[in-house]
Write a structure and sequence with these properties.
With 125 residues, the protein is of the alpha+beta class. It is 42% helix and 14% strand. Strand 2 and strand 3 form a beta hairpin. Helix 2 packs antiparallel against helix 4.
Length: 125
């Protein structure tokens, strides 16, 4: 499971009236969850002479779940082998360097979300 948390956003969030935080953050983080799911669904090219036939079950298994006002979890549901393909701590050697891990994707996208939120907060009356 990848968790994207808005680290360092507490100062910016102080600029938003408490009643508006959910509207501003909620809208941005929910839309951004879809962006991250699009990223985790990308498969690397097959290996030369690969015998395994891809089922693409992992691609369709990703879901987003809000875990607090500034946290979004992106999770692979019902695919038991997901940690061995994209898990940061359990990724199998054959997948290392070919498949991005869930944490790599979270680290890559977190700054983008922070910038989007700063822009959205700036538009907030």
């Amino acid at each position: 499971m990848a968790s994207i948390e808005l680290v360092g956003m507490t100062g910016a969030l102080r600029l938003v009236a408490p009643a508006r935080i959910e509207a501003v953050v909620g809208q941005e983080i929910n839309g951004f969850g879809d962006t991250v799911i699009d990223a985790v669904q990308v498969y690397p090219p097959e290996l030369p002479n690969q015998r395994y036939r891809r089922t693409y079950a992992l691609r369709g298994s990703w879901r987003k779940r809000r875990a607090g006002p500034t946290t979004m979890h992106i999770e692979s549901m019902n695919v038991g082998y997901a940690p061995y393909v994209m898990g940061d701590r359990r990724q199998a050697r054959i997948h290392q360097g070919r498949w991005n891990t869930d944490e790599q994707i979270a680290r890559q996208y977190e700054p983008i979300l922070q910038r989007r939120l700063i822009v959205a907060i700036g538009r907030t009356p």
